[in-house]
Specification:
alpha/beta, Rossmann fold, seven-stranded mixed beta sheet, 14 strands, ABC_Transporter_SBP, signal, ABC_transptr_periplasmic_BD
């Protein structure tokens, strides 16, 4: 998974370039300056809440066959918080017993944290919670912790970890099957698929599309990255009818930010996480990073920030996220 590589990457330095950058389409909001995405942060549980029909035996994403006998105490953890979001949206949120660092929506915020050092699972913290089933994916670990949980008799089901729009429905189906609520999964999948499709239809038609670059920034840790094909951000950018500038420049997943890379990407708009933007000193600090000031986005201060807990989650709120991104990118200037 692309984000699993982020902690080990840093800035690869290049001096700021001076070549002019040619943007993509005509940007009607070029003079509007920075904006923020506004999206509902809370998952919406389906009603009525289903009753799990167990035991069930499912095929885990790692190929193992796993039998789940109880969904009374569910632990749902992964890099993005999307699995816990799905469990909550299936109407089983009251059965969650712990959370990962990325699961921060209000209904789960007070649950015990079972990750340390960012996204590493703690076997001791998990075993103290006595879960009857653990749902996770290959993007979180270490693997030795999962083996320890299996050895203790806890069913561990790995959900697919692909971060794409089509995969959202697949993950909902996998989680619902593992918890013995397949009908609720079908209902939730239908709702989410419809929301995503509705949001995609808001993309403007005709004309040259805007170029949008996603930057992953952690200034306090010296991490400055640009997303490309397969980063996850590319799917959201393309869903609003824009061009992912990193992908168009030939980049894959996340690559260190350089002057040359930014100038070649030539984004009209730069998309960042809110905490990341803060970590580099806001918009003023961002435009001082390599190559930013030489892009149309940098010159026009066309920066869109999004809450860390929503943008790359690829969970049940993805349709709402796409709509919020489109609203932020294509918004009319405030009077």
């Amino acid at each position: 998974m692309a984000l699993a590589l982020l902690a080990g990457l840093g800035l690869s330095g290049c001096a700021a370039g001076t070549a002019p950058a040619a943007g993509g389409g005509q940007d009607p909001a070029a003079g509007c300056g920075p904006s923020s995405m506004k999206v509902s942060y809370e998952p919406d549980p389906i009603e009525p809440a289903p009753t799990p029909k167990l035991p069930v035996t499912v095929k885990s994403a790692d190929g193992r066959k796993v039998t789940v006998r109880s969904a009374d105490r569910i632990l749902a953890v992964n890099m993005y918080g999307s699995i816990a979001e799905i469990v909550f949206s299936l109407g089983l949120g009251d059965r969650l017993v712990g959370r990962d660092a990325s699961t921060t929506f209000a209904a789960a915020r007070d649950l015990p944290l079972v990750t340390v050092n960012g996204h590493d699972l703690s076997a001791e913290a998990i075993l103290r919670l006595n879960p009857t089933v653990v749902l996770t994916d290959a993007g979180i670990g270490p693997a030795e912790v999962l083996d320890q949980l299996r050895a203790s008799g806890i069913p561990v089901v790995l959900i697919g970890d692909e971060q794409t729009l089509p995969a959202v429905g697949e993950h909902i189906t996998e989680v619902a099957a593992a918890l013995g609520v397949p009908e609720a999964g079908q209902k939730l999948k239908k709702r989410v698929d419809e929301e995503i499709e509705s949001a995609r239809k808001q993309a403007p038609s005709g004309g040259e599309p805007l170029r949008v670059a996603f930057l992953y920034l952690r200034g306090t840790a010296g991490v400055y990255l640009i997303g490309g094909r397969g980063a996850g951000s590319d799917a959201l950018i393309e869903a609003i009818g824009a061009v992912d500038a990193g992908s168009a420049a030939g980049l894959t997943e996340f690559r260190p930010l350089t002057s040359e890379g930014m100038i070649n990407a030539a984004p009209d708009v730069i998309l960042v996480l809110t905490a990341g933007l803060k970590s580099v000193g806001g918009v003023d600090g961002l435009v001082k990073l390599p190559g930013i000031a030489q892009t149309p986005a940098g010159r026009n201060r066309r920066i869109v920030d999004a809450d860390d807990g929503t943008l790359l989650t690829f969970g049940t709120r993805t349709g709402k996220t796409i709509k919020a991104l489109a609203d932020a990118v294509y918004r009319p200037c405030e009077s």
